[in-house]
Specification:
It is a single chain. The chain has 112 residues and is an alpha+beta fold. The protein has one domain. Helices cover 48% and strands 17% of the residues. It has three helices and three strands, in the order ββαααβ. α2 packs antiparallel against α3. The longest helix is centred in the middle third of the chain and has 29 residues. It is rod-shaped. The model has no long low-confidence stretch (mean pLDDT 87).
Length: 112
């Protein structure tokens, strides 16, 4: 994120009312990499990543059960795992949708 034309000083960046950090006007003019900071977008990406890992694990287990011709008792364990896998996929796509965020930049006044 780059913000040019600010008066010299320190500025606090908030996203969705959460403080992300304090930066100088020079830093903001040069550009701040939001991917390096704890932002709501980063939290969203981590949650999506964890769900993708869960889906990969479910697929791996289902494949191993199929190869081993595992008997899981009444009903088809494979069908249950496929439904779970499908539900995770739907959840992942929903969670990954871009969300609007409110950004605010406030000048931090020096302590006297």
């Amino acid at each position: 994120m780059t913000i040019a034309g600010l008066a010299p000083g320190q500025y606090e960046l908030k996203i969705d009312s959460d403080s992300v950090g304090t930066f100088s006007a020079e830093q903001l003019s040069a550009g701040v990499n939001l991917a390096d900071l704890k932002t709501p977008m980063r939290s969203q990406a981590q949650t999506v990543g964890w769900s993708i890992r869960d889906r990969v694990d479910a697929h791996r287990i289902a494949t191993r059960m199929l190869i081993a011709k595992a008997d899981v008792g009444a009903g088809s364990g494979q069908d249950v795992l496929e439904k779970y896998n499908d539900s995770l996929e739907d959840k992942i796509y929903e969670m990954a949708k871009p969300k609007p965020h409110a950004f605010s930049l406030t000048r931090v006044l020096p302590v006297s």
